[in-house]
Amino acid sequence: xxxxxxxxxxxxxxxxxxxxxxxxxxxxxxxxxxxxxxxxxxxxxxxxxxxxxxxxxxxxxxxxxxxxxxxxxxxxxxxxxxxxxxxxxxxxxxxxxxxxxxxxxxxxxxxxxxxxxxxxxxxxxx
Length: 126
Prior knowledge:
Helices cover 0% and strands 52% of the residues. The chain contains no helices and eleven strands. The chain has strands spanning 2-7, 10-13, 18-26, 32-39, 46-52, 58-60, 68-73, 78-83, 92-100, 115-116, 120-125. Strands 2, 4, 5, 6, 9, 10 and 11 form a seven-stranded mixed beta sheet that branches. Strand 7 (68-73) and strand 8 (78-83) form a beta hairpin. The N and C termini lie far apart (40 Å).
C-alpha cells in the first residue's frame, strides 16, 4: 500500500502563488509516476501534471503550462506542485496520485492511477 498526503492548499488572490506538497509513505515504487489532478465543484476530476520518479520527465495540461511546475524530492518521497499566476478557474480540490509502469499515453488518465490522496482545497479569489 502507498499512502499519499497532500498539504499546502489555501485561499489566495488571483495572481498569487501556492505550493502543494504530496508526501508518499508505505510501499514506494522505484519506477512510479506521480500526478496531480483537480476537481472543481460540479465538474469531473481532471489531470493537471505528472512526473516520473526516476527521470524527471514532466507532463502538463495546456491550461497550466507556464504557470505550474511539478517537481520531486527523492530523499523526502515528496512531490510538489508550484502554482504561480493563479486564476479563479484554478479553484478546486487538488489530489495527488501515484502508480507504476504507466505509459506516456496513460499519464493523463485518472483511471491509470491506483493510489490517491484525500486532496487539498485551493481557492483563488478574483
